[in-house]
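To the team - fe (ii) ion complex, inputs and output below.
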Amino acid sequence: MLIGPEDIQKVPNMFMNAVHEDEIEIINRLYEALKKGDLQEADRLMDELLIDLEDHFSTEEELMREADFFGYPMHKAEHDNMRREFKAVYDSWKDTKDPSAVMRFLEEKMVPWLKLLVAQWDSVTAQHLGD
Ligand SMILES: [Fe+2]
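Output:
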């Protein structure tokens, strides 16, 4: 398991917590498939993660806009960076099917980024939104 549910801070909004838990599960399943060299399953999970990330980010952005959250531009800029970075990894996966490149990205970029984002931005956003 690359990331445990306890590695991601809980925020005061149950919906956001549920979205994060689902995402952690997809990331772990993807990591396991890559580790086993199950390319077909990994490919399916890469597609799932691309859709899941977009759902996660766009739902939060909509909530922030509706609630007139002051941190919207900064929080959205973080999302946009990860959208770009993950899309680049996704595209090169589709070309090369190289598990080690994706594993490295998950270990070194996505998981640390997600922990930090939730601690820095999602927690403040959730406080503003309430439950
Ligand atoms: Fe989030």
